[in-house]
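Hi W.,

Here's what went into the run:
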Amino acid sequence: MKRCVILVSFLLALCSEAWGECLSSPKPIEDARAVSLGTLLLSASGRYYVLDPCVRISRRQFGSRLKLGFMNNFEKADTEASFYSAKSKRTLTLDQTTHVSLVRTPGWFGYLTTSDKEVQSIPEIRGDPFRGTIEQWNSAHAPDSGPKELRNIPGLIRPWHAFVDQGQSLASSVDPQFWQIDAADMTSKTIVTNYIIRFTPAPTNSFLDFDIYIQDGVKSVDLTTASQIEAFSGVRTFIIVP
Amino acid sequence: MPAPIQSSDTGLDRFSKMLPADVTAAFISTKASLVSAFQTPQQQVYPVVIGFFIILCLSPFYFRYVTKIANRWHRYFLVGTSAVFAISLANVQLASFLIDAIAALKLPTEAVNPAVLAMSAVLPILWTLLISQIALSALSDKAVDPGAQA
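Here's what came out:
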């Protein structure tokens, strides 16, 4: 019995040292509905996994498309829609032609084309490349810029920023600082993908997800999430292993 | 239900005495209690794993002094079976625990999830259908408790 106690104490001591290391893997959970609000989850093969701030993700185990997101397990339903933003910086082994791409989930309202004047329901975007420069992108994201001003950024295929509702109560451009891309961090082998994910807070336990592609050549992913809902904000690093 | 194997037991009787239903029930009720006591899945990991580990450590004494199994081979096998069922019942918590423990040793943890998942799926079937039968045949006479009344 004494040996058992010593062994358990030893294992606990080891485990307490594990936090903060980048050797962790996604940890499976039984019931994703019970996670605390704002816990970033990875969904794969019908299971959910919680992620430490830095994890190693095996492409063999999780495939080349990571389905990440938050559980919509708010205590009370809200009538007002909200959103969270995510920014993934993928570092690859080869030079890339596109360095910024854009993703928007369904349900947003905004401008369908650059010449539109009326806000309307707009379709989802699954990865439009931004063909402008980082400087053009950053300078467009000035403090007072809304979806209307941001629909004409040179290099944009179609308007991307949008409102969560027809009444234009909340725009994805509300925090222009978040959308700034640090040019010093960018290399020819880097791709930044910007996501806007709309949802209505409710205890529905639906998965508010977005996809990150970790195709062959992706070495690491730096993910930043931000939202008006503080619990959804955070920074993660994924080391991709074969 | 584990109990001393007697020479007059039928094959089915002997097989049923190789399966620790009471310890398995203890695992299930412990897990249910701890899962309801600790709200989030992350908080449940250590209590469940430690709880199972304690039950596993106590099981040899339970088999020896409560169920009065004097034959040590029978007891070893029951402890092994309890461990297999524990892995299967707490595979999710065990995987998280092992990821933390192995990462603390500065070793890569990518193999933990698939290994624990495969073990929890395959081991109980293998153990119950094959290893129990093999052990029963191999230990047939050894496992008979000489002190047990027919």
